[in-house]
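Tutorial, part two.
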Amino acid sequence: MLFLSEAFFNFAPSLTVSDELILAYLPGIINTNPAKTAKQCRKAKISPHVLTTADGGVIIGALRGLFVYTIQKNGVISVKTAHTKREPMDLTQGKCWRVILLFSLPVILSYLLQQVYSISDAAIVGQTLSAAEVAGVNDTNSLVFIFLQFAFGVSAGFCVITSYYVGMHDERGVRRSLATQLLLSAALTVVLTALALVLLDPMLAWINVTPAHHEVYTAAHTYCAIIFAGIGAQLFYNFICSFLRAMGDSVTPLLFLLFSTVLNVGLDLAFILVFRWGVAGAALATVLAQLVSTIGCFIYAFVRYPVLRLHREDWRITLMDVKRHLARGIPLGLQFSVLAIGIIVMQGGVVKFDMRDGVMVSNAAQNGFGAANRLFNLVATPMNALGGAMTSFTAQNLGAGQYDRIRRGTLQALGMVSILAILAAGTGLLLTRGDFCYHVFLSADKVTPDAVRYGNSLLYVDFSMYLFLGFVFVVRNCVQGIGRSGFVLGAGAAELVARITVCLVLPGLFAGGAVSADAPAMAFYALCAADPMAWIAADTVLCIPFFRNILKKNYGYLRSGRA
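Running the prediction step on this input gives:
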């Protein structure tokens, strides 16, 4: 280790301007006493390092993105500086709560921007198109959700393998994971696109949207068809963002999502207000913005991180590589899709409150529920993002063998998500004052007392039980990160059964028979209870690996090969 006194810098005939600038901070800091140096560096907020540079130098100090190092050549010692680059965050080092917070903040902002991305469509469509067309777009949320969330879940699951290799510092493993995911994502794009387009009409029928309700049906069919045709853009965007987060880089996805959001809003305005393409314009704007952002993010990732540039041997993917990724990705993707199926059943129940004797007599329940659901998703975003960040945190620490750190990080994340749940519920309730949130998503003629009543019913029920949702977000992702995918899928199945049971049984009990536009208010509250009952069911399943593996630090299944 080389420590230099202040007098050492007096020789410095070879220093450049940048060297002199950085050394202006260092005299009196770097000296021959290591303990004193460390103490002075901490006081001056300078980090001392003992690292070797590529040219054999010894780093002696760093400040604000620059580091100073010495190099000896032909008996002459010289001092040089170099700029540091932003590197992915190492989630296996540092205080857990601080690392989680710093890593999750860009993820939270990314998720919020994704909501803005969705809200921009909803707001522009809601303010410019007819009530029936708005109802058609709102009705498709759950249908779009089932496929796009499967893509999101699969990508997040695949990247558990990537995070594991990152924690092990295995660069070849990271590249092989990237190559495997590229091939699997391409195959999934073909399968999901074909499946979504073939099932479009049957799925619309599931939520009681049929050609008999021509304007609503046409809007819903057009919007879904375009979004489904562009599933590949969404899938590959989720893939590259999840991959970068798995490496510890949560900033790059945020920057590209910001670009995509701005582009989406601009295209929305152009396609809907200028070209008058209506619902088709809103869907096309979403797909094109996503596609451009995906291409840009891939190019940046390969330029910024040379380690990701694939070599010929990285494409020698084995059947075991495919199985390992599918074993992590498919359960999480199915879990998200299972959730969407339950929401489809719930959406079908909502439509019944706008019908009488098989005829749609109103759009109030659909529009009110749709607007409230968008507000719900918006304020829940920080909790969801914090949970998403925990997948990378737990997987990296699993790869590094730091099981106690997984336990501490999970408990601290639960504390943070509890605070976020309370803040989210309070914020959501404030945004309902004066029917503000409904005027954001709907034009004034659609903000009727009935629409507001239906929307507020959902929000009051859900906000009162937000802590259960927060537990789902954090623990589900932690369980996925430690490789217990079976429990993640089991939690999704429990959630589905609970949601469908409530939707099919409780509203009819309170309505005293078939549900219709004449049903009492309590019947709609009963339908809304499907959300918290589903969360509680999922929590019950997730508690098993939470107590058995995370809290007790029991990872024997890794040796036995079970997940």
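Residues 387 and 474 are 4 Å apart (CA to CA). In part three we will examine how such features are distributed along the chain.
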